[in-house]
Design a protein that fits this description.
2 copies of one chain form a homodimer. With 243 residues, the first copy, chain A, is of the alpha+beta class. Chain A is built from 5 helices and 10 strands, in the order βαββαβββαβββααβ. Chain A is globular, with a radius of gyration of 19 Å.
Chain lengths: 243, 243
């Protein structure tokens, strides 16, 4: 019996998504809870992809297999009673056995939040407290150069060992509400640190340290020596995964 | 030299505002930082009033006296570098010696936030996660009965020993944005647990457990045995203090 779960989490107190011995991770907490429901049998939980320490999820997706059939609403209630307060199951649904949370993804959206106003202590783990003016018009022009199919090697962590660094960004957007800037990226997939490096470059453009044309130039370089200052984890949210 | 500070704090990890030996409080942290600036001389910091553990402030106000004159922007920088990440000084200004953060207040505003939608792990310390429907039209009718000058004994903690429990509520408001309800109270002053008990009663009215007329009835009773379920601290914010 395969189940798909949609869930949110506050990444502040986790060492990222993936199981790491001795460290508190989201996958660890999920697998403990799901295994308990699955008659104490060790059960793996496959997500749509990892997120790093401090990164949040508004609607992350994962799947797992149970040996027994349990009504979906009971799985939701059961998992939410077993999970810590910083992870929450939003939805549970039975899916065909060929559904795979990682390999069946069609599209993903990440958003990044920047506070250009006064430091806000309530939001210190939930937004990048940049605290200075940014030229949003320049950033809006620059972000369009990320759209389309590119080799994103220049924006990917050297820890990401996947051969293929070509991805397609379908849609981008930058909004400003009062003193909060929200940057949106939709793509067929993202690699480690990719969004935070793209945002880092946009911030350097908005602050006047770099030019709009640098987006294209850095993409074409295809190497990670462009010395972009990576944007911090706390501003980043996995917003949605499409199948 | 008397200085007025406007500051914000995340109340989640504090045992309230007031100094308590051995416990982390906002006043403790402020007095440590201010005393350091004041040539290591123990200096008291007087706020507009206390807030309880878990309660936040968007613009709290306090005053203190320094033996030396320091430019206002330097006090702001100095205090923010000394204070922990969950307190932030927004503004510093020199004030006449008869200014008193507590006794000179003219008006205060508190807001209370309720999430009637799905539990949000990112907001677990910053909103009351009620998670069920509330009849906002009933609540809007009910809140008007709090306006004006009343004896608020029925809504005040028995720990509040002040004789005079008469206060004037100048203005109230209830807004709903998506699944977040924000309740606003402006008054000449508030007593311990008063806002959280008023909100508790409004929630009981919105959920159908009590009637709109109960606001007036409970005010007139003038005793704390009305068994209102107090609303939790994490939804409450001191928003502004007027002088």
């Amino acid at each position: 019996m395969r189940y798909k779960i949609t869930f949110s989490y506050d990444g502040s107190n986790f060492h990222g998504y993936q199981v790491q011995p001795g460290l508190r991770t989201i996958q660890n907490e999920l697998e403990k809870a799901v295994s308990y429901l699955n008659r104490q049998e060790k059960t793996s939980v496959q997500s749509s992809g990892r997120t790093d320490g401090g990164v949040h999820a508004i609607e992350q997706v994962a799947h797992f297999d149970l040996n027994i059939e349990i009504p979906e609403y009971k799985i939701k209630l059961g998992l939410n009673s077993l999970l810590p307060q910083d992870i929450h199951i939003i939805n549970v649904s039975k899916v065909p056995n060929d559904f795979h949370a990682r390999f069946s993804t069609k599209k993903k959206e990440y958003i990044y939040k920047i506070n250009i106003g006064e430091y806000n202590p309530m939001m210190r783990n939930y937004i990048y407290q940049y605290g200075k003016e940014l030229d949003i018009e320049k950033m809006k022009k620059a972000i369009h150069f990320f759209e389309g199919t590119h080799d994103f090697t220049s924006f990917v962590s050297s820890e990401d060992k996947r051969e293929d660094k070509i991805r397609t960004i379908y849609k981008t957007n930058i909004k400003k509400q009062k003193e909060i800037i929200t940057i949106v990226f939709q793509a067929d997939g993202f690699m480690k640190y990719q969004v935070r490096n793209m945002v880092g470059l946009l911030i350097e453009i908005g602050s006047g340290k770099r030019k709009i044309q640098d987006v294209e130039k850095i993409i074409l370089k295809k190497n990670r020596n462009s010395s972009i200052k990576i944007a911090p984890a706390e501003g980043l949210y996995l917003r949605k995964v499409w199948y």
